[in-house]
Amino acid sequence: MPGGDVVEDSRPARRTAGAVWGRALLVVVAGLVAGLAVAFHWFGWTSIPGNACGGRFSPCPDGTTPTILLAFLCSFVGMGLVTWRVGELTSVRPGKVLPAVLVVTGMVLAFWPGWQAYAWMRGPVLDRAWDAPVDRPGTVKGVGNWVLDGAVVRARTDGLTSYDLADGRERWSVDAPVRGSACAMSDTVVDGIGVVAFGREDEPCDTVWGVDTTSGRKLWERKITGGAGFGPPTDGRVAAESGVAVVLEDTAVRGFALRAGVPRWKLDLGAGCSPIVASATAGRTRVAVQCTRGSAFRSLELVSLDTATGTHVRRTALPAESRWEAVMVLSARPFALWLKEKDARGTDAVLTFDDQDRLRGTVKVSEREEDLRMTVDAGRGFDARPALRAVVVGDVLVTAVTKPGEAVPGAVSGYGLGSGRRLWHAGAGGPVTALTRLNGNRLAVLAGGRIDSLDPSTGHLTKGPLIREGADDVAEAAQLVPGRDGGWILVNPDGTGVTPPLLGVSR
Asked: What whole-number distance in Å separates Cα of residue 149 and Cα of residue 455?
């Protein structure tokens, strides 16, 4: 305008600045996608235990596969977006520093949402919280456990040790007799007292202790006539119930006062008859007995007696025509007994009995569809008090199973004790290591490094937390124990260094 001030139009500059900021923001978004690729690669590949997984018995942890797939997807998309958006920005704002800063900013911002997405896909995890010092000397082995309120008493061949469930610290320890090894344990602790037996190498269990599980103090000691052929360690040779310690001798069953060790009663089983395993509950003791005539087999029987007085109640013949190879009590009430004869064509089944010792049902160990895997091989687990992979809940036997030809159980099945029929079958997602009964008639199943919750009535498995750190320190025959605040304790038979005696994991 003649004679007036010249007014410059600022709108093009504002448009240029707006374009720069808009394209800069898109560069940040592109960097965020690239950052997600880096995060997913890191989280995905580092989640693989031992740098290898896959297959039925070594499955990859939940979330690993989708995380790695997302990592590659974000890699390709992120590279394309960064190249495109950086080119768009430099066309209006030349330079290399700003695009680099924006891309790095986006990648840093991607870490938190990347972690949240991975955590959602992975599910809850458990990490190592503590482990107990390794067993010394290196020749000892765990033979059984008592799970108490706030502690686990672990029996080794050379004595007993109590561990605190909160941090694994040792509460007390007591040594076995000189040259003696722990060879039998009661399946329960009654009024704070457990019963444990010791024997020398290649000799029967002939020394019985009553132990105060709170302090580790030996309350009493008794010498007995140990059963021939029951070298250490052996399951079911002692029991505790109703103020009585029930002990199996060579040809008799004896009862001692649980707290004082005073002899209460003795029941002779008759000529040629020897007790194999005992179980005591609700005032009744049941003993599996084998009778022979010279070297010839005569019978296998179930003898019932009154726990308080030792009075004989009844004697019931078991379905066997040859000597026993395996006899184990799976449940005291309802009474369930696994009986396996030496005769390959003989009985190999879980037998269940009513309160009058009448046979209710039979669950065969090997059927057309699957085999029951209730224990691990002798010498690989807790031999004096096995941590079974089978639990009786109500009228259902829940056990680890294998398909024909398989050696490692990868599933669990439920069988009706009365009918003997399979009620349900559930894949466990990995090798079944342990089953533990929880409150509310539910079971915890440790399989493939994950602790799931199982409804024994339906077989429905609810996914639980994955042991992310420490799974390699869990033995094949470990015992699973609920800990505090949602944590868990794994108790291993071998604690000499390959695996720790106890491992605590928590969220």
From this structure: 24
pLDDT of res. 405? 87
- Distance linking the first and last C-alpha atoms of the chain: 77
- CB contact at 8 A, 492 and 471: no
Strand order in the sheet with 151-156: 142-147, 151-156, 159-164, 170-175
99's tokens: 């695009």
Tell me what pLDDT residue 8 has: 52
- The 3-state secondary structure of 273-326 reads EEEEEEEEECCEEEEEEEEEECCEEEEEEEEEEECCCCCEEEEEECCCCCCEEE
Q: Is 229 left (phi over 0), alpha (psi -120 to 50) or beta?
A: left
Predicted confidence (pLDDT) per residue in 146-179, tens digit: 999 999 999 999 999 999 999 999 999 999 999 9
Supply the pLDDT for residue 17: 67
Q: Which amino acid is at 245?
A: A
* 403-459 pLDDT per residue, tens: 998 989 999 999 999 999 999 999 998 899 999 998 888 999 999 888 999 999 999
What is the amino acid identity at position 378? A
- pLDDT for the residue 5: 53
**b or e along 124-138 (b: 16 or more beta carbons within 10 Å of the residue's beta carbon)?**
ebbebbbbbeebeee
**Could you give the CA distance from residue 194 to residue 77 in angstroms, rounded to a whole number?**
65
Query: CA 45, CA 310: separation in Å to the nearest integer?
Result: 63
Residue 74: both structure tokens together = 């974000």
How many angstroms separate the CA atoms of 227 and 289, rounded?
A: 12
Q: How far is CA 487 from the centre of its chain?
A: 13
User: What are the DSSP E strand ranges found in 346-449?
Assistant: 348-353, 359-364, 371-372, 390-393, 396-402, 411-416, 422-427, 432-438, 442-447
pLDDT, tens digit (0-9, with 9 covering 90-100), for 26-53: 888 888 999 999 999 998 888 776 666 6
CA 390 to chain centre: 11
pLDDT at residue 151 in the model: 95
Strands 348-353 and 359-364: antiparallel
| CA dihedral (229, 232, 235, 236) positive or negative | positive
The predicted structure's pLDDT at residue 7: 47
**234 Rama sector, left if φ>0, alpha if ψ -120 to 50, beta otherwise:** beta
Residue of 201, 163, 170, 199 whose CA lies nearest to 183:
199
Percent helix, strand, coil in the chain, to 5, is 20, 40, 40
State both tokens at 163: 């561990």
368 burial level (CB within 10 Å; 0-12, 13-18, 19+): exposed
Q: Residue 1: its pLDDT value, please?
A: 45
Contacts of 15 (CB under 8 A, 6+ apart): none
